[in-house]
Amino acid sequence: MRLLTTFIALAICGLFAGAAEARCNKNVAEWRPGVLQANFTVAQEKVVSAMRVTFVGHASFLIETPQSVRAITDYNGYNGYGKRPDIVTMNNAHSTHFTDDIEPGVTHVLRGWAQGRVEARHNVTMRDLQVFNVPTNVREWGDGSTRFSGNSIFVFRVGDLCVAHLGHLHHRLTPEHLEDLGRIDVLMVPIDGGYTMGQPYMADVVRQIQPRIVLPMHYWGPSSLDRFLGYLGQGNYELVRPTSRTLDLAKADLPESLTVIVIAGYGGD
Predict the structure, then answer these.
(1) Which of 2, 23, 91, 156 is the most exposed place for a label (fewest CB within 10 A)?
(2) Given strand 161-165, what is the order of strands in its sheet?
(3) Domain for residue 24, yes or no?
(4) Do the Cβ atoms of 249 and 214 come closer than 8 Å?
(5) What pLDDT does 139 receive?
(6) Is residue 224 part of a domain?
(7) HSE of 72 in the Cβ direction (CA atoms, 13 Å)?
(8) What is the pLDDT of residue 95?
(9) Measured CA distances, 6 to 2, 129, 189, 244 (Å)
(10) pLDDT class for 191, splitting at 50, 70, 90?
């Protein structure tokens, strides 16, 4: 198993033809560990199964593609502000997860919550990056009621590499959710255990989705991380703690078994 830190092994997978399906493929050709290393910049006409992910605060990550598309998750007006994103996603209508103050230059602003009883549905493709969402519900504070489609899981796809951000998830997933997501390689998981949902249930979601890599986020201090890892179960994962908040991902170099990579710091809700 080999994780890249400064270079990306590029697996060429051809061109997108027409509108991309809003779902990550479950049945893809068997991947093999890459042997070719190259700089992140590649020819513009190619679609490669690789991306760069940088933690920029709280639940926000900057995603960069080989064709220079930049997306920021849970864009809130300060985490990642000034990074010149092309696409921003906002999973939940909470002050630290969204903003109406969008910096100039953003092409697509994707809000993940329902308007009235009309759920949010997005599927956009910009050069080599496809972004789509799977709506989920949100638990209301106080009376314990459920808000219809108050959150979205956003999926970022380059070639056949799929990264999903769970957002402010408040419940385990249904078979329909899993079908809509398809095969997810890298999962960004909120592990606070309170503002979203309990850590045992979040660990169940990881087991439901079965990614190769988990990126913990949205938590407070090392004790939260340690508790979450306990619920994943000792011996069920490999733990990696890079010195950088930037991670280069390539389909050809995904680990064979579940790997938790800690690039996110701590932050409040």
Answers:
(1) 2
(2) 123-126, 129-139, 146-158, 161-165, 186-190, 213-217, 259-261, 238-240
(3) no
(4) no
(5) 61
(6) yes
(7) 27
(8) 60
(9) 12, 21, 24, 10
(10) confident
**How confident is residue 244, by pLDDT bands cut at 50, 70 and 90?**
very high
Burial of 145 (0-12, 13-18, 19+ CB in 10 A): exposed
CATH label of the domain that carries residue 112: 3.60.15.10
Q: Which residues contact 3 (CB under 8 A, 6 or more apart)?
A: 240, 253, 255, 259, 261
3-class secondary structure, 66: coil
Q: How crowded is the C-beta side of 105, counted as CA atoms within 13 Å?
A: 10
What is the model's pTM? 0.80
Taking the C-alpha atoms of residue 93 and residue 74, their distance in angstroms, rounded to an integer, is: 10
Number of domains in the chain: 1
Q: Which domain holds residue 107?
A: 46-261
- CA distances to 46, 49, 92, 163 from 166, rounded to whole Å, are 29, 21, 10, 10
CA angle 113, 156, 30 (to 5 degrees): 135
Query: Tokens standing for 104?
Result: 């100039």
Q: Is 138 helix (H, G, I), strand (E, B) or coil?
A: strand
pLDDT tens figures, 73-93: 988 766 666 678 999 998 755
**Residue 77 is assigned to a structural domain of this protein:** yes
Would residue 35 count as lying in a domain? no
DSSP H or E segment with residue 163: strand 161-165
